Amino acid sequence: MSEESGPRAIAFFDVDNTLLRGASLYHVGVGAWRMRFISLPDILAFGWNQTRFLAVGEGGVNIARLRVRAMEIVTGHTRDELVALSHDIFDSRLVHRLWPETVAVAHAHLKAGREVWLVTATAQEVADVIAERLDLTGALGTRLDSVDGIFTGTLEDGICHGNRKADVARGLAEARGIDLAGCWAYSDSHNDIPLLELVGNPVAVNPDTILRRYALARGWPIMHMRVAAIKAARASKKR
């Protein structure tokens, strides 16, 4: 495929509960606690929200409030510190929680000549590291405002969540001259219905109750993963 012709399509992947089990934000919190960015009460609060997220999905937690609290973690810290933290949590925590089936699908898209982009509410720096470590094309995440490389605690243009995910995905496709009718999107949450409806090939991954009903009504494919697959992948790596 020549550079002039460009990629045939893009596959967009949500991260939390789609590419990996649970909320990446929780693991950022654990890493931040280990590096003394935050206190023990903070990490306990993150732990509670992670438990709720695993049990009932995004509907069980106040995502907006949790994300804003997460941004406060890095206030006063540098971009380099967040990137280093992101590499640490990927190696120590995230890599062990990846859904092998979803990662395999992402790599199959790459092999077919398509771009694969993460679209996530996670901070851009964290999303970039996940994409880099998985050899994906790139990531679209929540952008944190910084001055002279130091985070101010505010966001550049809001959380990359809900309708905004669809907006940034559309912008990327338009910039590349790619027809969204030939693109894919993968997510577990009904909050990502705008993103899923944007493309010609939406796929629900371990969907929450609302998204499952929505997908069934429209005949969308549904992927089901089990924790046993993650455990099997871990065991295989230890051999």
Strand content: 15-25%
CATH class: Alpha Beta
Write down how many β-strands occur, each being a DSSP E stretch of 2 or more residues. Answer: 8
Helix and strand pattern: EHHHHHEHEEEHEHEHEH
Radius of gyration, CA atoms, in whole angstroms: 17 Å
What does this structure look like?
With 239 residues, this protein is of the alpha/beta class. The protein has one domain (10-238): 3-Layer(aba) Sandwich (Rossmann fold), CATH 3.40.50. Helix content is 49%, strand content 16%. The protein is built from ten helices and eight strands. The protein has helices spanning 24-34, 40-56, 63-73, 79-92, 100-111, 124-133, 163-176, 193-198, 209-218, 227-238, and strands spanning 10-13, 115-123, 138-142, 144-147, 150-155, 184-187, 201-205, 222-223. Strands 3-2-1-6-7-8 form a six-stranded parallel beta sheet, sandwiched between helices. Strands 4-5 form a two-stranded antiparallel ribbon. A hairpin with a 2-residue loop joins strand 4 (144-147) and strand 5 (150-155). Helix 1 (24-34) crosses helix 4 (79-92) and helix 4 (79-92) packs across helix 6 (124-133). 42% of the residues are buried. Mean pLDDT is 80; it is low at 1-5 and 43-62.
